[in-house]
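Box 3.1 A note on notation
Throughout this textbook, protein chains are presented in two layers. The first layer is the amino acid sequence; the second is a token string describing backbone geometry. Keep the layers aligned when reading.
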Amino acid sequence: MTDTPRFNAFLAEAIPAAWSEFAFFHRKKNPEKEQRAEIARLWREKAVLAESGDSSRGSWIACPSGTPAERLAGHGFLPCAMEAVPADVLLNFVLAMRIGTPAGEPTYRMPSATYWEAKRNPKSHTMVCFKPEFVEYAGMQVLKISATGFKAVRPGFPSKKASAVFSETSPGTYENVGYRIPEAGDVVKEAPIRSARPRLPWTPMRPEGSGPMDSKVGFASWLVGGINASGMASLEAAHIESRPVKELVGRRGMTSHLDKSKLVEAIFSSLASREIHLYDRRTEADNLGAWELFSSAMTKACDGFGLAVTDRGNSPYVETAAQIFVAIDREEAFDEDGAADTKPAAVASFPRPVQCFTGEIVTRPSEDAGSEISPAAVLVMLANSVLKDEVAARRLIMPREWVATDVMGSVADYVFCDGFADGEDKTFAGIQIARDGSIEFLEEPTEGRLYESVIARKLTPVFRRLASDPPRKEFVGAVEILTTPVRALPLFTKKGMSGHFTGVRVVERLGAYYSSGSDNPKSLKVEKSLVLRQVERVGGTFSGDLEMMAGFCVDPTVRLNAATVWPAPYKLLREYFFTKP
């Protein structure tokens, strides 16, 4: 298989000569429901070839050259030169119109997109498809690939809700034939499937014999090749260099990740005793197995670390210095039968912080093997148990290399801020970690008040910003950590993965970082790509922010060999809010 790009970001150039057979029209606002239905009708008549756009920039449509302008003027679409159409819109037109199908896999087409079938379940009559889309970011074209579901309506299951209906207009090609109440045999577009992501892996299980429909990385590579072959645009992988974060942690003898030995050392140096007390607080809502299975599996997993397990079963709490592990019901059980969540009552029965777990922690590696709990899962539970103790004590207990003062600054210079749902209201909280490891939490009723409170202390507030959130332009001096559409892609082979997918890495070109889940990645087990997060100082710049924020992600509180994807103080802040009275 050919080499694949390391990131999903490309430099793109449209080929003007290839677009001479098209006419373009632009509308400053996205079409309303009735207008969109008219666009779909014109698409079925081949008068409109594709539609693309967004709420901020409006809508573009591509039509055959020579289409009369008056035919679309009534819908608010005015003629537009090809040079005025954004590059990401042109690329989405290519996706909707010109890319073929590898090996005859079915496709599902709408006016604005084409979906490629990757997985099919004949029993449930469902299909899981790749949905690609280009967005522009930092002067590059970023290819996003998500999963969307389709479903064939079975006899005896009539629907009373109108849906986008697809029909097979040619072998292997299903086109949107209208929006109506579906009948048996119709194919309808489902909402994105919750379980679709693991069913469409980022890397194939058997790279040597895989095709473009077997993984997201393979599909992306095939898709880019198809666009280049179409002659309508030229895509070249953006030159993005990354390096391990060093300024904060590297100079103190740490690497940019935590390997197993360092993780174990950090956790066990923080325990008051090497004993675990195990309690069962499950109910009828989630009867996943005999308690003896849980207890014996936990005892076996802890033995390898020299940890003693005391089985307390359903007994009342007994005062102890040991860490407390409590088995509770799965959250999904309450969705299934409408029962009330039993976790709050289970936790409330203990006068001190406890670490909860559910039946999913018990696995069977093979049919011949017995049930077991992974030692790595025990380490994660211990780390999170210590973290709960830290929040309760308002002081760090577990060693963190990033707490030490650095010439560039200190974690004490920042307050990490976030908002939390509090019933029907929202509370905004912040956490400051002092140079001696002591912790202080702040609370305010609004985000603006929290910002002002932090600034009054002559500290720097740090906010997370998701892609859908507006920028905080008025919060001058604050740091924003922005989720970007750029991702580091896993590779098909182990060559280069150790540097590309290890620890926390800084991308200076984008002012961003990304953090991986392993210090020794194995390409066949990489389940997802890594999101790049940009670090910005509102109203100015500070060269140390990026290194500092990336360095705060090197922390032993997530999972074995892993870094946090947001600065680790956010995990303490979240724990504080969810455990407070």
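The chain has three domains: 1-239, 243-252+256-263+406-579, 270-392. Residues 270-392 form one domain.
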